Amino acid sequence: MELLLFSIGSVLMVYLIYDYIESSRREKIIERISTGFDSPSDDMRAESMWSGAMDLVQLEAVRSLIYSSAISRAFDMALRRAGFKVGLLQAIALVVLISSVTSAVAYTYFKNLSAGLAALFVFPFIVWLVVSYFAERRQSQMDKQLPALINSLITTMRAGGTPVQALMASAENAPNPLKESMSDVLNLIQLGRPPVLAWKEWSDFWDTKDTKLLSSGIRLKWDSGGQMTSVLEHIYDTLEFRRRMELKVSTLTAQAKLSSWILSALPFLLALITYLYRPDLFDVMLNDKRGTSILIYVVVSTFIGFLWLRKIAKLRS
User: Fold this and answer.
1) How far is residue 201's CA from residue 85's CA, in Å, rounded to a whole number?
2) pLDDT for 91-104, tens place per residue?
3) Rounded average pLDDT over 258-268
């Protein structure tokens, strides 16, 4: 066991050192390319600089290959929506590394190939669920903060401000993730991106019904002109009505959600009680290959059943 822990620590240390070296090398190459050949010493390093630039081109080719997959694009979008400050390549590398280590530990402990394969495929799935959970959580936070944003926009524009001024005032006082999102929209508009396109990209990024409704109303009035406050008032009323309906639905489905947690926890509670009174039964089961296979099957089937029950209890409008 000590040898296994030492191996895991060594692999993680090697990865961290490699990541640090690659990040430092990329930063130096970008700095040399941006500054040019102003000093005589730069001429001596011209060949190494352009060879490093070729490495960046190859890295970009690998990145394009990864982004060509729909699964990797969805994972990257979930990472950005969740607010994780990690790139797609780094996230994939970490998932592959930890999955391999977890699979090796499971195979060494259980002495079963099925346990190793299960750990190899279950960990990436768990990571996907965790990232998706935090992404949906931030999407929900964004939807909850939209009425306050609309109210602030209406107040500023009624006081004589332009839509851009209203957006700037709203972004300064808004909490995250709305503040960061509105700051990105403002930066795009100030850099010359058409406001209609900037709002379209914003709604495509968050991909909720509330953001799409707000984006459609703003783009319609921004492109055609007219009183934007009247459209924002209708959108505000619609969002408030939808929020009240969602609260009613959440109240009606609370019992089903609680039942899914209880039914999923029952097998583990019974296993804990059995282990406290008859630990010898677990010793026999863990020492038998058929017993470990049954335990793996129980854990996986319980997890799938929990997801199924949550899916049934979650109503989609």
Assistant:
1) 20
2) 888 888 888 888 88
3) 83
